[in-house]
């Protein structure tokens, strides 16, 4: 009879009474080991890692897309902090915060529109005067060149050469093509200005409601800290604007004196222009502020434009290294080196916006964190007091000579 499958199988191993797993037999030559199973946690870990990478990529993309909006909101928040004292003072007298905020914005808009209108009319008049007097300027320049270099240039030849030059034709083509780009930039700037004004209006008008909503999700101890930080931010931002306004006044008076001494027309308006633009438009404000007085001075005398340029450069250095650090230290209560470094860091991070809000932000952070820093009495050490001297109690040479001259006892040197 043929053997069955059960008889062909090897005998089973006897069970270990201790319950331990018997040792595996070594595999015979030529056989393949069975594949190990994948751990159960590995698929979940891979899915979680992919989900985290996808979330990071999505968050990074959303942040880059919303960077402009976040910067606008940051500017609006600091603008709301700047007008918060005026709005709160008007609201304390019984006026609604929305109406008070509207009146503050309306006053700022009226002052800005009036200044721009006055400045625009002055600039248009000076441009017309410059265009009408351009032939005389060109004749004087040609006469100077002919006398200096013994040439025989004529205005007609120069005008024809300019009109038929390739440079002028290319410049006209590029200017015509760039009109659309300039228009798009102007429209984008107006939309950004409207966005900042809208958010700042809401922040100022709904300031108490915003603070209440923020404090409602915090415990009482944290609520007091948030409200104190908000109050510090309002004080520091107001102090920063006060320092900027004071520097604008000093700059405007200084440039007015120069322009009045040179006999440049519209000296008061130009002084106000230089003061406001150089202080409240960071990074490029100085160049915009100095370009207009130079243009007006050029219509009077080309050398006057050079004098204005030299004065603007010298005054800017004086303001950056002498005036601004000291005024900032007194009004915002931060060290001049910290103020200077914060402006550089803010410019590197956020450009012109960072330069504008860096000082009040650092001052607020410094004042808020200063309450948590424990300070101790400093020892009376010459190295701390800031002057040289010996730490021993023996009197100095001048003191001993003075005592000997006075004939006091006990002042003789020991033998």
UniProtKB/TrEMBL annotation:
Residues 1-27 are annotated as: Disordered. It is found in: Cell membrane. The keyword ATP-binding does not apply. It comes from the Bacteria. InterPro entries: AI-2E-like. It is a multi-pass membrane protein. Keywords: Cell membrane, Membrane, Transmembrane, Transmembrane helix, Transport. The chain crosses the membrane at residues 45-63, 69-87, 99-128, 184-204, 246-264, 270-288, 295-318, 338-365. Belongs to the autoinducer-2 exporter (AI-2E) (TC 2.A.86) family. This is AI-2E family transporter.
């Amino acid at each position: 009879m043929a053997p069955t499958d059960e008889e062909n199988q090897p005998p089973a191993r006897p069970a270990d009474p201790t319950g331990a797993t018997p040792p595996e037999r070594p595999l015979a030559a030529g056989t393949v080991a069975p594949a190990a199973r994948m751990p159960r946690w590995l698929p979940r870990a891979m899915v979680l890692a992919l989900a985290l990478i996808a979330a990071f990529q999505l968050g990074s993309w959303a942040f880059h897309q919303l960077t402009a909006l976040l910067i606008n909101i940051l500017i609006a928040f600091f603008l709301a902090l700047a007008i918060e004292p005026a709005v709160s003072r008007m609201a304390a007298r019984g006026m609604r915060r929305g109406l008070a905020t509207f009146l503050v914005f309306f006053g700022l808009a009226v002052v800005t529109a009036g200044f721009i209108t006055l400045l625009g009319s002055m600039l248009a008049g000076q441009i017309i005067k410059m265009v009408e007097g351009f032939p005389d300027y060109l004749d004087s320049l040609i006469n100077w060149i002919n006398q200096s270099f013994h040439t025989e240039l004529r205005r007609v030849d120069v005008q024809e050469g300019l009109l038929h030059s390739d440079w002028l034709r290319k410049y006209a083509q590029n200017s015509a093509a760039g009109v659309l780009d300039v228009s798009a930039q102007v429209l984008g700037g107006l939309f950004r200005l409207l966005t900042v004004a809208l958010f700042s209006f809401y922040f100022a008008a709904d300031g108490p409601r915003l603070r209440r909503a923020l404090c409602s999700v915090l415990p009482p101890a944290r609520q007091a800290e948030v409200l104190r930080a908000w109050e510090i931010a309002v004080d520091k931002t107001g102090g920063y604007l006060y320092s900027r306004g004071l520097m604008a006044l000093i700059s405007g008076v200084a440039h007015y004196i120069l322009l009045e001494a040179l006999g440049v027309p519209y000296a008061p308006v130009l002084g106000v222009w230089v003061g406001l633009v150089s202080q409240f438009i960071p990074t490029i404000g100085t160049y915009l502020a100095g370009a207009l007085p130079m243009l007006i001075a050029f219509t009077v005398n080309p050398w006057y434009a050079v004098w204005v340029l030299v004065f603007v450069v010298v005054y800017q250095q004086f303001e950056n290294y002498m005036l601004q650090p000291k005024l900032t230290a007194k009004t915002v209560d931060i060290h001049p080196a910290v103020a200077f470094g914060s402006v550089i860091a803010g410019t590197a991070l956020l450009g012109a916006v960072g330069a504008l809000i860096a000082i009040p932000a650092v001052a607020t952070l410094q004042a808020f964190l200063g309450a948590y820093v424990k300070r101790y009495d400093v020892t009376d050490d010459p190295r701390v007091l800031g002057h040289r001297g010996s730490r021993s109690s023996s009197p100095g040479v001048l003191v001993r000579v003075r005592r000997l001259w006075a004939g006091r006892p006990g002042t003789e040197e020991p033998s």
